[in-house]
Amino acid sequence: MAKVIVDGIEVEVPNGATVLQACEAAGKEIPRFCYHERLSVAGNCRMCLVEVEKAPKPVASCAYPVADGMVVKTDSPMVRNARRGVMEFLLINHPLDCPICDQGGECDLQDQAVGYGMDHSRYKEPKRAVKDKYVGPLIKTIMTRCIQCTRCVRFASEVAGVPELGATNRGENMEIGTYVEKALTTELSGNLIDICPVGALTSRPYAFVSRPWELRKTDSIDVQDATGTNIRIDNRGPEVLRILPRINDDVNEEWMADRGRFSFDGLKRKRLDQPWLRVDGKLRPASWAEAFRAIAERIRATTPDRIGAVAGELADAESVFALKALMTALGSRNLDCRTDGAAIDATRRDFFLFNTTIAGIDQADALLIIGSDPRKEAPVINARIRKRHVLGKFPIGRIGPAGVDLTYPHHHLGEGPAALRALLDGSHPFMDVLKAAKNPMVIVGRGALARPDGLHVLAAAWQVAAAANALRPDWHGFNLLHLFGGQVGALELGFLPGAGGKTLGGMLGGGVDVLWLLGADGFDPAAIGAETFVIYQGHHGDRAASRAGLILPGAAYTEKDATYVNTEGRAQRAWLSVHAPGEAREDWRIVRAAAELLGVRLPFDTLDQLRARMVQAAPQLGEGFAPRGCEDTAGPAGNAAEMSDAPFAPAITHYHLADQIARASDVMAECARVYGEAPALAAE
Question: One Pfam family for this entry, by name (predicted)?
Fold first, then answer.
């Protein structure tokens, strides 16, 4: 540790730390533009200048290492004059268009010009202008504002792993952009907006919509993938205008995937805002009383073994618990939450969780990916894997379709179970790599399980992890990567077939007479039996709603207080930001009201009562989150010898159209067109 004196305050910092980090440890604010905690040091904006005793001139604190006994001054006359000079240079060509800039009110340049700049400029010559660049349908560029801090260049190269941004020319003629004008091919492009310290990169869908001080801000959780990204929802009145990430180092750091960030316009399109009842083959508007009477008539006329319920991909834990309570009270055991048909063994939590944890990726030293494309299924987790790769000594093997770009190099071991067999019998050299690692990881995708031999693939993946010594009390290296924010909560609550109950496959094709779909759009509704009465409860008129005999309008994740569980089993709360449109209601309230007309008394009347019962049934939803080791190496049911030779298929083929909110979004439809994604013919 090195002792450093900053403005008379002595602090201890690790050897190798920078002067800027020492100043922050002393509680001193250092202005900066190019420096970012999660990117490499560039040292090119010079705004972070400080005075170091015995140094002949001010030094850039972001790139200057500390030394024991160093004396630093952050607010001396030399420092103030230097910063004013730097700010004057930065503003030489910067346009004075703050009143029409979307960064106005949230701009680092604005704030630091006030705090550290001069009150006048000596520059009289005309300002230069730079042509705006096209970088895709999500980011709007006004490159005349660019101060060439290169944060965007470093993010694209280091975090996103898509080095498509760079600088051309030199000196006054230098410009940032893509060398060949095209859309950025990364699922994390929206983060460029957050890290840009000026208004050069702004959100195209949000352009000229509002000012930040007009917005009401609500903390929430992104449910459009299973990462559990912490987000902030910005709304004005009844409309969501923007979604931004919040910092959580254990989950998403400060990044967010594009689909969750930009598909918010889908929250106001194709919405279900009143009940609909099918009469004589046609849907017509109905009142809530009519809807509940139709439910009561149908269910009372049906035996419990002919009633089924399916929980969807974005369903919150409270609504899943309420629907399970209703079905249990009715005597039905036909429950399922695996709309993709994935063979998931839920007899133990560690069979279906990301047990290493997202933050635990940083401690891994070898990785095997089985039937998964983390770049499309969980872009933020993929960025975490890339971050670990950049640190070095992290061999990665993948079994799945060939030609997939994960943004980091990896060994393609094969396309299907044959490679798994080779690992198990020791004939593949990558098994030696896993065994030599101290903390090996195995990630299994749902695409590897959504097939007839899925249970056998799950068992084989567990056996590979066990053979690699990845299942220990101090390290759990087996991980299942889910796709959406509602999938793990339903598994935690046991929304699965009871004894003698039917799976989703058993309920389709006429297996039940009444089928209650709780936002379940992840399968082809054409497979439902022609005589089956379908109750669709959800927030969007997606494909399953078109097959319904009765539609109950529910609330989207931005419109309710709810609990969601991410892929690692971390229960997190989302809060109501805007109210649901029209007559739509929170899903658990709809189930509770339907139970009353069915003569079923559910043991809760309020959200707090429901949550108390829910935590009683699944204590892990109310406990604090902590990493887990593996105490029991006994594997899930299944026989690795019975795996077929069919190659693994991708779980998500159309990233921008993967869920019902995204499929209703015009912005996501434009992204799908630009990136060559065919329209999703079935819910993915």
Answer: NADH_dhqG_C
